[in-house]
Specification:
Radius of gyration: 19 Å
Number of strands: 0
Shape: globular
Number of helices: 15
Distance between the termini: 28 Å
Structural class: mainly alpha
Number of domains: 1
Amino acid sequence: MGAIALWATLAPVGVRLSHLPPFLTAGCALLIGSLVALPWSGFKWRLALVPTSTLALGIYGLFGYHFLLFVAFRTAPAVQANLVNYLWPLLIVVLAPLFNKTTHLRFRQVIAAIAGFAGAALVMTGGNAISAEFNVGYLAALASAFIWATYSLLTQRVKAFHTAAIGTFGLVSGLLSLACHLVLESPVSLNAQDAGLLIWMGLGPLGVAFYLWDAALKSGNAQQIGLLSFITPLGSTVLLLIDRQEALSPLVAWAGLLIVGGAWLGRNTGPQDAANDPKFETSESS
């Protein structure tokens, strides 16, 4: 919930920084976010070191996701691209059994995921119809969703690493993002307000949020976490409305009901569900 709350602030901050090139924004924020690894590791930098294969996974997740998402935003309508991108919580729920043999997909979890995505779609589109015309940017958005879902699930399968290693992922991904900025975007100047917002973005949604997300996946149920993640677009919309001093609409309330209802429906309800949680241990096995 901490990661989700921080990610919800990304939209209003992103809107205020929309005049900056996206790769510059992501690169600066990721580099700032990588500094969070220092206090997280107790300033023991060795804890941030990981094998090459694990580093590759981190770059795949952090850089791959943001690169494809920004490509999608540059080549497709933003609302539709963001809607396709928010298939990632649904993919986490559906793909979890493929990555963990002790996890099973139940009918109510499928219904819960569909309800959560419907709520996310409702709040992001404002209840308006969207264009059904194909755009190559949608493929990039779908790929970004697939990358974040599989990255999240794969972190549970690789050799255990300290959460501080997320700082290494962010450092390399930030440098790659800045390289993309130099190649693909025009240089700009930053003012004091831009710098302040970039620092918040780096410390919050592109910093601490990643560390909390990693810790959550290592100690929680990926399917339940995926369902809760649909709260992110709802929270983003509410914060945007507050930032713009606009009234909350009944549509937002309906979206919230679908998302929260879906998360409640897909929760663990008893011993049988707990036994299928990869972190659950019986008294005998303990």
